Amino acid sequence: MTKNYETFARVYDAIMDDSLYDLWTDFSLRHFSKGKTKLLELACGTGIQSLRFAQAGFEVTGLDLSEEMLKVAEKRAQEAGVKIDFVAANMMDLSGIGQFDLVTSYSDSLCYLADEVEMGDTFTEVYKHLNDGGTFIFDVHSTYQTDEVFPGYSHHENAEDFAMVWDTYEDEAPHSIVHELTFFIQDEDGRFTRYDEIHEERTYELLTYDILLEQAGFTDVKVYADFEDKAPTDKSARWFFVARK
Q1: pLDDT tens for each residue of 85-134
Q2: CATH match for 145-201 among 3.40.30.10, 3.90.226.10, 2.40.320.10, 2.20.25.110
Q3: How many CA atoms lie within 13 A of 210 on its CB side?
Q4: Under 8 Å between Cβ of 235 and 225
Q5: Are 62 and 84 in contact (CB under 8 A)?
Q6: Exposed/middle/buried for 158, CB within 10 Å: 0-12, 13-18, 19+?
Q7: DSSP labels for 9-52?
Q8: Which of 42, 201, 219, 227 has its CA 20 to 30 A from that of 107?
């Protein structure tokens, strides 16, 4: 792995609000099936949430499409002295991954799926690989967040060794957005390298998620909002689904 990518991953981690990981962990611990320990984290990225779960006593497997992100995650787990299995795979095909008591996907990772078909395929895969009595928890952007809050959003950040410009626009599909990110990261000889990224996200009405979960086999589904054990309102930013098998 290049030093550049490590730096890039560190910048990614730096722009994340660290307190969110505590909130995701606390929400999970409140809603996980009791006495269950074998956990699969979908779209684990650089492994911060996987590490939190492992430190809380779970037997964790972290899955992500990006092998580079997983290298950062592996290094993070090694430095913490914690054993976590990291797997490079697509969440729409979990064959060969094994069976789990608990499956999570946080930080609106499922919003990166292209459409309802991919969302439904992912739910079906999770259901197949979840043990009876197990729990699947995920969060997604609310339609209020994608339709009212994000369009026109702009965030600029300057630090000594990096700068970031983040702008968000409404996309063509209903409840979809595009994030345009530009990073300037300083390398070892003091020069700045530019990185450009496009992130496309999409969410759906609450009813759509309910139908897709039901089609996958889930019959016990609860919906909460913004890390609290309360029902969503019309201005909730983030929806949390707790589905039991």
Answers
A1: 999 999 999 999 999 999 999 999 999 999 999 999 999 999 999 999 99
A2: 2.20.25.110
A3: 8
A4: no
A5: yes
A6: exposed
A7: HHHHHHHS-THHHHHHHHHHHHHSPTT--EEEEES-TTSHHHHH
A8: 219
pLDDT tens sequence across 131-160 = 999 999 999 999 999 999 999 999 998 888
Q: What is the CA radius of gyration of the chain?
A: 18
Please tell me what DSSP assigns to residue 116: H
For residue 239, what are its two tokens?
């929806």
Strand partners, 102: 39, 135
As beta bridge partners, residue 7 has none
Query: What token pair was written down for 214?
Result: 């039901």
Fold for 3-141+205-244, please state it. Rossmann fold (3.40.50)
Domain boundaries, the chain: 3-141+205-244, 145-201
Helices H / strands E in the chain, number of each: 7, 11
- The predicted pLDDT at position 1 comes to 37
Residues ≥6 apart with Cβ < 8 Å to 63: 40, 41, 42, 43, 44, 86, 87, 88, 89, 91, 94, 97
Q: b or e along 129-147 (b: 16 or more beta carbons within 10 Å of the residue's beta carbon)?
A: bbeeebbbbbbbbbbbbbb
Cα gap 78→90, rounded to integer Å: 24
